[in-house]
Write a structure and sequence with these properties.
Length: 54
C-alpha cells in the first residue's frame, strides 16, 4: 500500500468521489480530467483507510 494502511474487513460503501464523477456522463472530457482522477483516488484511499466504527 502506498502511503497508508488499508483496513481489513467489509468494503466501504461511501465514497466522496466516484468513477461516475470522473466520467462526467460517460464522455471523460480532457478538461479537468487529472483533477477528477486525483480526487477519485484520494476519495478511494480515504474510504479504505477510514475507521469503520466512525
Amino acid at each position: 500500500m502506498l502511503g497508508g494502511v488499508v483496513r481489513e474487513g467489509a468494503a466501504p460503501t461511501g465514497f466522496g468521489v466516484t468513477i461516475a464523477d470522473v466520467a462526467v456522463g460517460g464522455s471523460f472530457p480532457a478538461a479537468g480530467y487529472e483533477d477528477r482522477v486525483r480526487a477519485w483516488a484520494g476519495s478511494t484511499l480515504a474510504a479504505w483507510s477510514a475507521d469503520p466504527t466512525g
